[in-house]
Amino acid sequence: MKQFVVPQFISVESKILGPITVRQFVLLMGALLLSILFYKFADFTLFLFLTTVNFGIAGMFSFGKVNGRPIHYFLLNFVQTTFLPRKRVWCKDFSVAEIKNRIEAKKNIDDEIIYSKPKLLEKSRLSELSLVVDTGGRYQGGV
Q1: Is residue 103 part of a domain?
Q2: Per the confidence metrics, is the pTM higher than 0.70?
């Protein structure tokens, strides 16, 4: 059988600048470009406020983690769970007659089911089956 090298740590992102990954670098550069736009088109106090908020959000998305996963995965899962729940609840009101019919149908089905005990295997049959399993199906004795 051939031996293969299985890659490990595939969920670890590549580092480009010290401890900063490509995703973090792009987010921080986007925040820097947005701050430059704030500097060009806003007065200084508004620029300081918007830049602080901008770098706060970019830093949160770059370095923030919830349960060891990046925060954007957490927010994506939160939005999906909030707006697209997996549990579908359907509440239908049944009349008394429908409930009685369902109970009677279930009783009839339960009466028709025949319960039987499985046959016990003999010791020789068990040892033969274990031999087939152990040999990977090469042993074809009395099977």
Answers
A1: no
A2: no
Number of domains in the chain: 1
> What is the distance, to the nearest Å, from the Cα of residue 50 to the centroid of all Cα atoms in its chain?
36
Task: Establish if 130 belongs to a structural domain.
Answer: no
pLDDT tens per residue, range 102-131: 788 777 765 556 666 666 666 677 788 888
* Tokens standing for residue 44: 């200084």
d(CA 121, CA 118): 9
